[in-house]
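User: Reviewer 2 asked us to show a designed sequence for the structure in our supplementary figure. I'm pasting the structure tokens here. Could you produce the per-position amino acids so we can include them in the response letter?
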């Protein structure tokens, strides 16, 4: 359809440049498309505008939808479908009409012959050549596009061991097209069973750890496992002696001689047999007997009495913590709240900062501008407050702290997932922290709502108390979250840990461990609990222990951190991501790697010129070159009337040396050759802006001023092997030569240290006497690993002298 046929097809606003200028042939209204119209209405809300840009859009009519998975929506598909031709009505003359009996007889014989030939041909094809494969993604798109053979087969899958089905896993049933790949069917069922398997096992099933079989562990014939579903059905239907009850419905399996031709539809019954020994080898732990594993204990592996708290509980929809514990109100004293109430709320604006921290800004609008956003998240929201209000300051701080912990949890969980994915670790991905909003109740006439739990008298008393002028503004705060089921799984307590060897519990224990090490011991997540949703477990009401002890209610500070370290036991996930020991250095490198990818870093060069043109330094005084920089006077010979070596060209070199009088040590001048690859140095540089041609732009350059050698341990470790070889060779010579060999070895070793290292940290001259050189040498090697080797050589020399 062209633009002339549909003048409304183009997305264009009233002003030039408005809209995306897209062409939507099925668009019925002029002006902007749905997406551009939504973006135009969200100019004051960049978050909402960004969400509109990310929603999928139909290329036919321009409508948008979060659940749209294809280029066209359902209506546009119907418009694009070709109109079926009318079926012509056959006209048969009276003389050409055969009898009904004869026609039925011919039809029955013909159908039987054709069916037998098809089954025979299918059996021969399955044994000789496998059918073509189709990836799972293609199969899904194939079905979603409403194309295929038109023949559907119902597959009944059962998770089993080689001997029997696993009774804890119910029969799973799905409908597939006859052209779907059997390999893809296996992958789909493995993914579906994994959702329940992870709650009972320490890891997920991998595709190569599951074998596809007929019931009673009967192998599939030929290459049918790699063919199509229809081919699998046809080949086994034509096999002599194959148990036909595997190809009929569950109801027909109870019959004495079930026949697939007499059942309602086509059915396939399969077992997915778990290779338990292979899985145990990969995970390094025994599976429970209930899952076909070799563990002799009937209870869950590594269950601990330390986690004796119930893993599931029914939780109220409001928080139950208070300043010193929560109190359960008796029924007779409970306040009967009205069935509905009206409140005006101001939603806080949240600004994301680094490391999951947030800034809470109350300069927002009222509820009417925010509720549409909340409704998109969930149809029902829960307004949470302190179940036993203490005071308005404390209540506000507690609820705001909970929001901060949720945002910090999202940050740490994203990093944890990224680390697990990078290391290829098997973990439970079905976790997320709940969304939440912080709202302030707009109090009118000094009377908060009945649901707030704050009476008018108490509000007046706290609002106008003398001390309140020096504090933060008093607010009646609500924490708004999507409503969840009351079923709660407890993965850890505030001061206790649940030790259970199933993948969700192992994942949460490793996540808490990870938060401690990623924060370098400053914080750990505790009291992790979640409720099931269609998207997995949603975590809420989490707490943290911090060094400061002020992250929120339940923060026990150092006591909580020490209790976690004492009670935590590393599991497989902790080990595989490198947290078996206190590997702080590894976490630093990993953290730097994530924050600064190698391909995104640019080298920074710092240098200086040996000479400055005299016209740029008319008042400068010429300075001599350092003897270590210019030992042969070559640079000094280049000085002339046009170039000068002045103070701007001098680079100073220092080395940090320990000092008994100064805890921070001293900085002594040193030689430029003292610096080696691997040393840790401090660089001092100046930044200069050089005007470019035309004067419109300037170039920023760095000018090197000084280098300070802070630490050479890494360089010494690199030289250790070469030093060890020198002395090992010298010791071997002791057994066959005279003691002067050792003297020469020691002299050669000193040459390596004093020559190659150039007397690091001291101002030596060529005419230094031997005693001074040796004293300096002893000081330079004080406490180093090379000094130990030298003492061994000296001791051997003294022993040989005494023997002589």
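Assistant: Here is a per-position design you can include in the supplement:
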């Amino acid at each position: 359809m062209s633009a002339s046929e549909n003048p409304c097809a183009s997305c264009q606003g009233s002003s030039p440049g408005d809209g995306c200028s897209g062409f939507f042939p099925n668009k019925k209204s002029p002006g902007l498309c749905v997406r551009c119209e939504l973006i135009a209405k969200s100019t004051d809300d960049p978050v909402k505008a960004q969400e509109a840009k990310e929603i999928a859009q139909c290329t036919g009519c321009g409508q948008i939808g979060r659940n749209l998975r294809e280029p066209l929506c359902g209506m546009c598909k119907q418009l694009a479908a070709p109109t079926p031709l009318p079926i012509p009505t056959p006209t048969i003359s009276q003389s050409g009409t055969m009898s009904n009996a004869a026609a039925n007889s011919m039809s029955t014989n013909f159908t039987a012959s054709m069916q037998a030939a098809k089954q025979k041909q299918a059996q021969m094809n399955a044994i000789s050549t496998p059918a073509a494969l189709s990836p799972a993604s293609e199969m899904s798109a194939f079905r979603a596009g409403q194309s295929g053979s038109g023949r559907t087969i119902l597959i009944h899958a059962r998770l089993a061991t080689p001997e029997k089905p696993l009774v804890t896993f119910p029969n799973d049933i799905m409908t597939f097209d006859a052209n779907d790949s059997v390999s893809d069917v296996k992958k789909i069922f493995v993914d579906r069973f994994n959702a329940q398997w992870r709650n009972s096992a320490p890891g997920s099933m991998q595709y190569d750890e599951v074998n596809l079989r007929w019931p009673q562990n009967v192998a599939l014939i030929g290459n049918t496992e790699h063919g199509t579903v229809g081919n699998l059905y046809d080949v086994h239907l034509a096999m002599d002696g194959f148990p036909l009850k595997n190809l009929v419905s569950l109801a027909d399996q109870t019959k004495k001689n079930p026949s697939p031709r007499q059942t309602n539809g086509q059915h396939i019954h399969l077992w997915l047999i778990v290779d338990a020994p292979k899985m145990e080898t990969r995970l390094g732990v025994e599976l429970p007997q209930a899952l076909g594993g070799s563990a002799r204990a009937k209870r869950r592996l590594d269950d601990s009495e330390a986690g004796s708290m119930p893993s599931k509980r029914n939780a109220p929809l409001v928080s139950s913590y208070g300043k010193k514990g929560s109190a359960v109100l008796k029924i007779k004293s409970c306040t009967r709240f009205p069935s509905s109430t009206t409140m005006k709320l101001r939603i806080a604006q949240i600004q994301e900062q680094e490391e999951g921290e947030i800034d809470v800004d109350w300069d927002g609008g009222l509820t009417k501008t925010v509720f549409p956003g909340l409704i998109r998240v969930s149809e029902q929201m829960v307004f949470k407050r302190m179940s036993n209000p203490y005071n308005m300051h404390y209540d506000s701080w507690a609820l705001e702290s909970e929001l901060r912990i949720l945002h910090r949890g999202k940050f740490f969980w994203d990093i944890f997932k990224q680390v697990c994915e990078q290391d290829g670790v098997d973990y439970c991905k079905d976790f997320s922290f709940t969304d939440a909003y912080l709202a302030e109740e707009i109090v009118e006439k000094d009377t908060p709502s009945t649901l707030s739990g704050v009476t008018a008298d108490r509000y007046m008393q706290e609002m106008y108390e003398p001390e309140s002028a020096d504090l933060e503004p008093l607010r009646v705060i609500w924490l708004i979250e999507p409503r969840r089921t009351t079923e709660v799984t407890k993965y850890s307590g505030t001061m206790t840990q649940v030790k259970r060897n199933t993948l969700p519990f192992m994942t949460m224990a490793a996540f808490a461990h990870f938060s401690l090490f990623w924060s370098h011991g400053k914080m750990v997540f505790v009291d992790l609990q979640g409720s099931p949703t269609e998207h997995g477990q949603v975590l809420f009401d989490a707490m943290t222990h911090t060094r400061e002890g002020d992250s929120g209610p339940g923060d026990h500070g150092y006591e909580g951190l020490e209790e976690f370290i004492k009670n935590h036991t590393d599991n497989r996930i902790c080990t595989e991501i490198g947290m078996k020991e206190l590997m702080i250095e590894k976490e630093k490198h990993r953290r730097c790697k994530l924050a600064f990818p190698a391909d995104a870093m640019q080298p920074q060069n710092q240098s200086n010129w040996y000479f400055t043109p005299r016209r740029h330094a008319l008042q400068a005084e010429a300075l001599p070159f350092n003897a270590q920089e210019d030992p042969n006077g070559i640079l000094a010979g280049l000085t002339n009337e046009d170039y000068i070596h002045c103070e701007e060209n001098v680079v100073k070199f220092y080395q940090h040396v320990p000092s008994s009088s100064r805890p921070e040590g001293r900085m002594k001048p040193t030689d430029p050759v003292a610096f080696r690859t691997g040393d840790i140095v401090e660089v001092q540089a100046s930044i200069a802006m050089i005007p470019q041609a035309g004067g419109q732009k300037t170039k920023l350059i760095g000018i090197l001023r000084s280098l300070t050698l802070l630490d050479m341990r890494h360089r010494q470790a690199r030289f250790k092997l070469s030093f060890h070889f020198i002395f090992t060779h010298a010791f071997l010579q002791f057994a066959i030569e005279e003691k002067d060999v050792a003297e020469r070895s020691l002299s050669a070793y000193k040459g390596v240290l004093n020559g190659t290292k150039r007397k690091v940290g001291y101002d030596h001259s060529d005419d230094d006497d031997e005693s001074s050189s040796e004293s300096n040498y002893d000081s330079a090697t004080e406490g180093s690993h090379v000094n130990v080797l030298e003492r061994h050589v000296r001791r051997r020399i003294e022993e040989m002298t005494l023997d002589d």
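For the response letter, you might also mention the following. The mean pLDDT is 74. The two ends are 111 Å apart (CA to CA).
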